[in-house]
Design brief:
The chain has 766 residues and is an alpha+beta fold. The chain has 28 helices and 23 strands. The strands form 7 sheets. The protein has a 7-stranded mixed barrel. Strands 14, 15, 16, 17, 20 and 21 form a 6-stranded antiparallel beta sheet that branches. Residues 46-98 form the PEP-utilising enzyme mobile domain.
């Protein structure tokens, strides 16, 4: 390889920097079966693998087998895969755009399998991928996959990734800017406020801050892309609806059983214990999961608002945080991104039992142990952070710091947990660092450490490692691990991953979604229900695992209709997933209806019908660099105007047209599923069927337009989209990123629902 000539072929984001370039043949992996076949080969350790997304679990066997490097087409260093490649010490460049190469089955430009590539990760944030001169390239005219986003949409998303709502930044500056606009002291924890209901103003302030805080923690994850193994966005969105529907009842019962002070005591576990899921992530996710689930359910029109349930969830969450901190600011984002929770006796124990590394092999062995246990935690918890939690940094006398990290390796609440047999419930690593360069540390509210520069592990000097055998093992029986048992646990983790991966890969899509939803729905409440002695009652008497009917309805919209992939990122990137409680107001001028209705249907729009400046001055809309959005007053005003419109016509006048639309709607859904699975010939045949279905819907649309003229616009928009699709622009069939037939059709469907004031349950097709 030393004599090989290389040419730059792509750039992406460096996960961590290293001055030594990495070279090897590249291998494209686009399915779990491809991953398993690859790790069975003899070339793993010499190969650089290329995958689509930045999710962790898809590459589990390859990471455990020790690939030489990783490239992704999607993703960012803050994603789960970025975290794990740092743990493994595997060079990785994410979100790579290749200038030339061959085409994947989906038309992406990628290097040819077997071509020699070099990763230059000597600088950040941008890394460079080079390829051997003369590597195969696609012939001219070979179809190229449409870009994941057009340039305008990508620019809008980039603005929203960098600033919340296009205005508020990440970090301490963003926290201070956002809090300056709040009207209550709800984010300050004190004894008196624990025992009274929250006011509407307090609930709304917490909702608003929750939107910024979730964005601050997770915005970078919005770019991690798709997983070839686990449908994350689908299961997350379904689980949030289930959490909204059922958690408030359980939170009330727990509070009635143990009292307000008992709930505060549950939060104190994170100070008294290591290896507990009563931690930063779970107290954050319990309250915000209910609030975000409310946002999803309201967005889908599947439920009536229940302000008392939102109030209950936020009150319970504040009590946990009060126990966690003992008072004061509620979130780590308000505390300089520091989470120094553990009582001093733990820190003294760590100091007494730490092993400082004197040989390179000690540090290498520890990092391999850490990576294996972390990987199993991710896989066991279906690629989410419920299996991982950090606290710290705790300062040390030598000017360094300690990060304390829990990895959760067993959970008997999940039937697949038996595949990770022979492991303790959790291992805890007290990791000692003494940086020889400045490090900017941020421990975010989901219990995860990020640093700049990213590769903080290079400064690791020593560690003390502990095991908690069961979730209820007393804290004084948590035991120090020696190197021999650490090796045994590492081997058992690798074996557990080897069993779990094909088990998950063999599930149907629905099974994966429901299993992932079970993790979210179960895990966020589980440690507090156990701590309150209520878990067995919730499961046995109250049918904890029973799926709520509203959740079942949401599945069809979120999964079968494919809305989850666009809905979840939009709701948390824009903050609209946390709608405040509505405030009473006089209805706006009826002339504002078109603009408000457009935003109610789409969530955001680059252009508005009518005078946007006047609507902004009235407090109904707000401009962001990414587009116009409704304010809380705008949402309320739209509902008032929509109610007035409903009163102005007879619903029976459009009911026959709507019934006609529904008969075509079901056939269009079937066609969309066939389109996604079809090859070029099948899609060509489906275009004619698509044209026929649109034509069959036109009489219904035109009949509706005679009653409500604004519906006539859908006829025109469908004609434009269909014309472009028939002209060869395939994205105009299904893509959510343009005015495709599917995009316009879904907006038309939603408009029918809004206009008639009916739910998808009443409609019957979801």
């Amino acid at each position: 390889m030393l004599d090989t000539a290389f040419e730059a072929v792509g750039t992406g984001l460096t996960v961590f920097t290293d001055d030594t370039p990495v070279e090897g043949p590249v291998r494209w992996l686009d399915s779990p079966q491809a991953v398993m076949e690859f790790v069975a080969s003899d070339a793993v350790k010499d190969t650089i693998v290329l995958v689509r997304g930045g999710t962790t679990t898809f590459l589990t066997p390859a990471l455990n087998a020790g690939v030489k490097g990783v490239l992704t087409l999607q993703g960012a260093p803050e994603s789960h895969l970025g975290i794990l490649t740092r743990e493994y010490g595997i060079p990785c460049v994410m979100g790579v755009t290749f200038d030339r190469g061959v085409r994947s089955a989906r038309g992406e430009v990628i290097p040819a399998d077997g071509a020699l590539v070099r990763l230059d990760i000597s600088a950040a944030p941008q890394g460079t991928v080079l390829i051997e001169a003369g590597a195969p390239e696609a012939e001219e005219g070979t179809p190229t996959a449409p870009p994941a986003m057009d340039a305008e949409t990508l620019a809008q998303v980039q603005v929203l990734l960098e600033r919340f709502g296009g205005e508020v930044p990440h970090g301490t500056a963003g926290d201070e800017q956002f809090r300056a606009g709040l009207t209550s002291g709800v984010l300050h924890l004190d004894d008196a406020s624990m025992h009274r209901p929250l006011t509407d103003a307090e609930v709304n302030d917490l909702s608003r801050y929750a939107g910024w805080n979730m964005w601050d923690c997770l915005a970078a994850r919005a770019t991690e892309g798709e997983s070839g193994l686990i449908p994350r966005q689908e299961y997350e969105s379904v689980s949030f609806v289930q959490i909204w529907q059922r958690y408030p009842e359980f939170l009330r019962l727990i509070t009635e059983e143990i009292g307000v002070d008992g709930v505060v005591e549950l939060g104190r576990a994170s100070r008294r214990e290591i290896g507990t899921k009563a931690n930063l992530l779970h107290s954050w996710a319990l309250g915000f999961g209910v609030a975000f689930g409310r946002g999803v359910a309201l967005e889908l029109g599947l439920t009536e608002d229940r302000p008392e349930d939102l109030r209950e969830a936020f009150a319970f969450q504040r009590r946990l945080y009060h126990g966690q901190w003992g008072g004061g600011p509620m979130f780590t984002s308000m505390r300089g991104y520091r989470a120094q929770l553990l009582e001093d006796h733990w820190l003294r124990r760590f100091d007494d039992e730490v092993t400082f590394f004197t040989e390179p092999e000690q540090r290498r062995d520890f990092q391999r142990f850490s990576a294996s246990t972390e990987m199993l935690g991710f896989l066991l918890h279906f690629d989410n952070r419920a299996g991982l939690s950090d606290t710290g940094p705790y300062p040390t006398a030598d000017g360094g710091f300690v990060i304390v990290r829990d990895h959760f390796l067993q959970e008997d609440a999940y039937q697949w947990g038996q595949l990770a047999e022979g492991l303790p419930y959790a291992v805890t690593q007290a990791m000692y660092f003494k940086p020889d360069e400045p490090l900017d540390l941020q421990l975010v509210d989901i219990g995860t450490l990020f640093t700049e520069p990213a590769n903080y592990l290079r400064h690791l000097k020593g560690a003390a490692v502990y095991a908690r055998d069961r979730w209820d093992t007393p804290a004084d029986r948590i035991r120090l691990l020696d190197p021999e048992e650490m090796r045994r646990i590492q081997v058992a983790c690798d074996a557990g991953c080897s069993r779990l991966y094909p088990h998950i890969a063999g599930m149907s899509k629905r099974e994966k979604i429901m299993a992932g939803a079970k993790v979210y729905y179960t895990d966020f409440l589980l440690p507090y229900a156990r701590g309150a002695g209520m878990w067995n009652r919730l499961v046995g008497e109250l049918d904890f695992f029973e799926l709520d009917p509203v959740t079942s309805q949401s599945y069809y919209t979120l999964v079968r209709d494919g809305t989850a992939a666009a809905l979840v990122p939009r709701l948390f990137l824009t903050g609209t997933g946390f709608p405040p409680l509505p405030e009473a107001a006089d209805p706006p001028d009826p002339e504002a209806f078109d603009a408000l209705h457009t935003l109610a249907l789409r969530g955001m729009a680059a252009e508005l019908p009518g005078d946007g400046a006047a609507l902004e001055a009235a407090g109904l809309v707000v401009p962001t660099p990414a587009g116009w959005m409704l304010t809380d007053a705008g949402r309320t005003g739209h509902e008032q105007l929509l109610a007035a419109e409903r009163a102005s016509f007879d619903r029976a006048a459009i009911a026959p047209a709507y019934d006609r639309f529904l008969t075509v709607n079901g056939k269009l859904k079937v066609l969309c599923v066939s389109w996604q699975a079809g090859d070029a010939d099948q899609r060509a045949a489906l275009l004619g069927e698509l044209e026929d279905l649109v034509d069959r819907a036109r009489p219904a649309i035109r009949r509706t337009a005679k009653v409500l003229p604004r519906f006539g616009r859908y006829d025109e928009r469908l004609s434009v989209a269909l014309g472009r699709a028939l002209g060869g622009e395939e994205g105009y069939v299904l893509s959510p990123l343009c005015e495709s037939v599917h995009t316009v059709w879904m907006e038309l469907h939603e408009d029918y629902l809004m206009t008639q004031g009916i739910t998808r349950e009443e409609e019957g097709s979801y």
